[in-house]
Amino acid sequence: MSLSAEVKTALETNTDLMDILTGGIYCDVEEISRQNTPAAFDDNKEIQPCVLIKLGVEIPTGPYVRGAQCPVIIYFYERQGYENIDAAMALVFDQLNETQTGDRVWNMRFSNSVYNQRDVALDCALSTLRFVAVRHK
């Protein structure tokens, strides 16, 4: 299972989070779209609150030869406004920060947040959380 799939599985156990993310949690796809993630959209083809988990560029880290740092970027989407996004981001932060989420992960550390952005292609609100997973390769 990929690290992004392990994070997805962990987040899906949070019932409060899943109550907010009516459009679901996705990973191992390039983007949220009506073709790749049709359940993220309602009957009117409007995006529902949802999350996409992607991994960034992994780099080596010491002190172990097989140690690596892998960015885990979590994209939060909502049709308009940021009420659901902000609530979901707080729950995800509390669940993942300073944990060992994922196989062979020593520590998942918060890196940064980007708030109140806009996804022009989907015409929706967007914010992101970034964590760094320090793990054994």
Provide a descriptive summary of the structure in words:
The chain is an alpha+beta fold and 137 residues long. It contains 3 helices and 6 strands. It has helices at residues 3-12, 15-20, 83-96; strands at 24-27, 50-55, 59-60, 67-78, 105-119, 124-136. Strands 1, 2, 3, 4, 5 and 6 form a 6-stranded mixed sheet that branches. The radius of gyration is 15 Å and the shape is elongated.
Task: Offer a concise description of the structure.
The protein has 137 residues and is an alpha+beta fold.
**Number of DSSP helical runs:** 3
Fraction in helix? 10-25%
Radius of gyration: 15 Å
User: How would you sum up the major sheet?
Assistant: 6 strands, mixed
Distance between the termini: 13 Å
Question: Class by helix and strand content?
Answer: alpha+beta
pLDDT < 50 stretches: none
SS elements, strand count: 6
Order of helices and strands: HHEEEEHEE
Strand content: 35-45%
State mean pLDDT (0 to 100 scale). Answer: 96
Question: In one word, what is the shape?
Answer: elongated
Write the layout of secondary structure elements.
Elements: H1 3-12, H2 15-20, E1 24-27, E2 50-55, E3 59-60, E4 67-78, H3 83-96, E5 105-119, E6 124-136
Parallel strand pairs: 1-2
Antiparallel strand pairs: 2-4, 3-4, 4-6, 5-6
Features:
137 residues; alpha+beta; 6-stranded mixed beta sheet; 3 helices
